[in-house]
Fold:
Amino acid sequence: GTVECIVKAIKNARTYYWQYSFDGGTTWIDSPDTTKARMTFTNLPLKATMHVRFRAMLRNSIHMDWSAPHWIIVV
Structure:
């Protein structure tokens, strides 16, 4: 399955960090960083419940807090 996440762009963001979890957020798996406010997750197990979160690093190298997790069912 594939999940595409698009979030509202953050002013002065240089990098977006992405993580996902299949156990309700107990264990987080790092995904590749992006320079845009979007990430495509591929090769996921179908019908699995997945939680996704992100955070941004700003141009002044300050890291924002992680977003609240959003849950998705993989299709």
Q: What stands out?
A: The mean pLDDT is 96.
